[in-house]
Design goal:
Shape: elongated
Order of helices and strands: HHHHH
Oligomer: single chain
Number of helices: 5
Low-confidence stretches: none
Distance between the termini: 22 Å
Structural class: mainly alpha
Mean pLDDT: 95
Helix content: over 70%
Number of strands: 0
Length: 78
């Protein structure tokens, strides 16, 4: 139980380290949106989405959309 609380706090701190735009992109990735759709939704280029997604994944130590979705689900953000 204590371990779970510590991991949740650690994961929350990692998420909070993201910029607002990185959070926007990660949340939309977690909802299953493709980069092009995210770009259209946020009115930014697809290349910018890719950059934000890449930086966020490095900060969160995640590899793909499935891991992003799981991470957000654990934080109740999905």
């Amino acid at each position: 139980m204590k371990f779970q609380a510590e991991k949740l706090a650690y994961d929350r701190k990692r998420f909070d380290s993201l910029t607002d735009r990185e959070k926007d992109v990660v949340i939309l990735v977690g909802k299953g949106m493709m980069n092009k759709t995210i770009a259209d939704t946020l009115k930014i280029s697809e290349k910018t989405v890719q950059q934000h997604r890449g930086v966020a994944c490095k900060k969160l130590n995640l590899i793909n959309a499935v891991e992003i979705a799981d991470f957000l689900r654990n934080l109740n953000l999905r």
